[in-house]
Write a structure and sequence with these properties.
This protein is of the alpha+beta class. It is built from six helices and 17 strands. It folds into three domains: 55 residues, RNA-binding S4 domain (Structural Genomics Hypothetical 15.5 Kd Protein In mrcA-pckA Intergenic Region, Chain A, Roll); 87 residues, Alpha-Beta Plaits (2-Layer Sandwich); 78 residues, Pseudouridine synthase (2-Layer Sandwich), CATH 3.30.2350.10. It starts with 6 loop residues before the first strand and ends with a helix. The longest helix has 9 residues. The chain is elongated. The model has no long low-confidence stretch (mean pLDDT 91). Pfam families: PseudoU_synth_2, S4. Its EC number is 5.4.99.-. It is an enzyme of class 5 (isomerase). InterPro entries: PsdUridine_s_RsuA/RluB/E/F_cat, PsdUridine_synth_cat_dom_sf, PsdUridine_synth_RsuA/RluA, PsdUridine_synth_RsuA/RluB/E/F, PsdUridine_synth_RsuA/RluB_CS, RsuA_PseudoU_synthase, S4_RNA-bd, S4_RNA-bd_sf. It catalyses: uridine(35) in tRNA(Tyr) = pseudouridine(35) in tRNA(Tyr); uridine(2604) in 23S rRNA = pseudouridine(2604) in 23S rRNA.
Length: 241
């Protein structure tokens, strides 16, 4: 017996198609820019069923599959990973000013103080796979810390720690290089939690000076300049799928 097609509110249906964010969709709907089966709908929670209802924005039918975009950014420190910030802080979308890109959503997040590889796409299924903690690719980080961890600390990070009742572990934690007072670690996560690396290190009384994501799966940040972006190649998109 076939399962019934999923029912979603109109704003969510637009965001799931990769057209815009859910917040932006709600604004468009309230402004009267969205129609369902030829009738303007102003309720963001108006129920729609995939494959049954025809949705249009500004008269443009969305039933045709949109062109998909896949982009990598070298996120600078100090930007927040959101489309709009209630506190007025600069967001990662500043890096795309004037690029003429359609709506693309972040694939996962990096916090304000973190930097490095951040993906964007308007392909919800592809993005969900990469962000999936069970099936998604590993994420590799280079982390500068305020002291030199010994082998016991690194083993503890790999074995796992508990913070705020949540079990956190690194798939890999190794010492890259050490100076007199600080060191660089390489930490690989296969299931990222909110601020996971900072929280794990804090349980060992270690502070983070810099945190840079250098790769997602086989996709490396490489020589991409800070604040710069580029589209992924077809091979790169397929390798992450």
């Amino acid at each position: 017996m076939a399962l019934p097609a999923p029912r979603h509110g109109l704003a969510r249906a637009l965001s799931k198609r990769g057209v815009c964010s859910r917040t932006q969709a709600a604004e468009w709907i309230r402004a009267g820019r969205v129609s369902v089966d030829g009738r303007v709908v102003r309720d963001p929670e108006f129920p729609t069923i995939a494959g049954k209802h025809s949705i249009a924005v500004d008269g443009r039918d969305l039933d045709a599959a949109p062109e998909r975009h896949y982009v990598m950014l070298n996120k600078p420190r100090g930007l927040v990973t959101t489309a709009r910030d209630e506190q007025g802080r600069d967001t990662v979308y500043r890096c795309f000013d004037g690029a003429g890109l359609p709506w693309i959503a972040p694939v996962g997040r990096l916090d304000k103080a973190s930097e490095g590889l951040l993906l964007f796409s308007n392909d919800p299924a592809w993005s969900a796979h990469i962000a999936d903690p069970a099936a998604g690719p590993d994420k590799t980080y280079h982390v500068q810390v305020d002291r030199i961890p010994d082998a016991v600390v690194l083993a503890t990070l790999r074995a796992g720690v508990v913070d705020a009742g949540e079990f956190l572990r690194a798939k890999s934690a190794t010492l890259l290089r050490a100076g007199e007072r600080n060191a660089w670690l390489e930490i690989v996560l296969d299931a990222g939690r909110n601020r996971q690396i900072r929280r794990m290190l804090a349980t060992q009384q270690i502070g983070v000076l810099r945190l840079i994501r250098v790769s997602i799966g086989a996709l490396a940040l490489g020589e991409l300049a800070k604040g710069a972006w580029r589209p992924l190649t077809r091979a790169e998109v397929a390798a992450l799928a």
